[in-house]
Amino acid sequence: MQPELVIRETTQDDFCRVLHFIELVDGDFYPPLSQRGDGGIYERVRTSLATSNANYVVAEMTEPEPSDGLQGLVAMAGCTFKWQQEDDAYINFLATHPSYRKYGIAELLYRQLEEMLAEKGVNRVYLCTWSGNRAAMRFYEKLGFIVYSIVLNDRGNGINTLNYRKRLIAKQ
Ligand SMILES: CC(C)(COP(=O)(O)OP(=O)(O)OC[C@H]1O[C@@H](n2cnc3c(N)ncnc32)[C@H](O)[C@@H]1OP(=O)(O)O)[C@@H](O)C(=O)NCCC(=O)NCCS
Questions:
Q1: Which residue minimizes the CA distance to atom 37 of ligand 1?
Q2: Protein residue with its CA nearest to atom 27 in ligand 1
């Protein structure tokens, strides 16, 4: 059963929780985010939270366990606005806490993020995943994303990058 959740954008005050959440799921990415040549997780979070066009949206439990170091953070999406054009956005991160997967939480989070993007005038959303990540591929396709290009062997070991996009109807 899905816990009672609120969905909101992060602020600088969320730095440590965002960092710890990405560290928790780092190994679920291929290659892990910590091993990508962009300064590591710390730099990724620092840059995002310091940039007005990049932010995280989190789903968190309204009543977390007091012992929970993440204070109820169960899913998170990172989004860069005005990615290539004024009216597009790129989802640079999406994950659900391993203990809360397959409860519909990422779908809830994404649907709310999409509403926020449409209200900000976004017409197209981009993201990517890698071949073999069946959960993400099914997830994005269920939500209406379409593959528009495939970069063969982009991640080595025969692993391809799948680039997806979805058109939105902006509310501005
Ligand atoms: C992909 C991910 C975010 C999905 O999160 P989630 O909260 O478990 O997803 P939801 O419960 O909202 O699932 C929504 C839909 O996604 C698809 N889906 C989710 N998990 C799936 C799985 N393990 N296998 C197949 N389809 C899956 C299904 O279509 C599902 O809808 P359905 O239950 O009606 O069939 C999660 O598996 C995750 O964090 N993976 C590791 C990080 C990652 O790969 N992120 C994406 C990188 S591009």
A1: 135
A2: 135
Structural domains in the chain (count): 1
Q: Find the mean pLDDT for residues 79-104.
A: 97
Identity of residue 79: C
22-45 exposure pattern, b = at least 16 Cβ within 10 A, e = fewer: bebbbeebbeebeeeeeeebeebb
Q: CB of 58 closer than 6 A to ligand 1?
A: no
Q: 144 in ligand 1 pocket by Cβ < 6 Å?
A: no
- Could you tell me how many residues make up the chain? 172
Task: Note the pLDDT tens digit of each residue in 113-144.
Answer: 999 999 999 999 999 999 999 999 999 999 99
Q: pLDDT tens digits for 50-75?
A: 998 989 999 999 999 999 999 999 99
Whether 22 is in the pocket of ligand 1, judged by its Cβ within 6 Å, is no
What CATH number has the domain bearing residue 106? 3.40.630.30
